[in-house]
Model the fold of this input.
Amino acid sequence: MDIYDLFSKFELDLLPRDWVQNLWKDDFSEAVEFPTEYEMFLENTDISELMTTASSYIREWLESADNSSNASRMSASDNRSSMNSSVVDSNSWQNLISNNVQHKALVAMLSIFVLRGKTEKQFEVKRLGLIATDFYLMLLAIPGSQVFHIFNPILYSHAVENLKICSVLTGSSGSSKPAPKKRRGKHQDDDDCEDDEEVHNDSDEEGELVPSDRAK
Done:
């Protein structure tokens, strides 16, 4: 499976152009409903697994480009350098879009999951929101994300909010309670009482010596 097969699994053709354009026009300000046909697709697809697989694949895809880039710097052969450069250039949004990857539909689809994860309380919705957030951030790592407007400041801010919410929830669940105060044992309390009695008796004895001293 190559990256084009991977993107094709999202069935982005089912998203009407008007629906996609309206989301982009509104800067992903709210989570609208998916079109009916796409809802049916989601019902029959493990979208969380698909997004997770896509994120992992893109990460490896970008790492292979980095390795090729490093090899080109170390190579003394002009021909090999040229070949590696072409490999690096292919791992970009320019190449993806030129091969008909529907980037606007993909970002629009992800925006719904990101926004729902931010605003709704159900665990599964928030989990999908975090998976979509991770996928979106991986798309931003592909060269050309700003030139082709994959990076949208509004959608990016929603993604960051999802990460903050996750961080807060993780921190709350992981916080430890203060250790209970250690209770003193009965034996230690008895010893302390005996010490107090000895101090008290010593004080009495000293008090009895005072009159006799005055008598002298």
Residues 1-7+46-65+89-171 form one domain. Residues 186-215 form the longest helix (30 residues). DSSP finds ten helices and no strands in the chain.
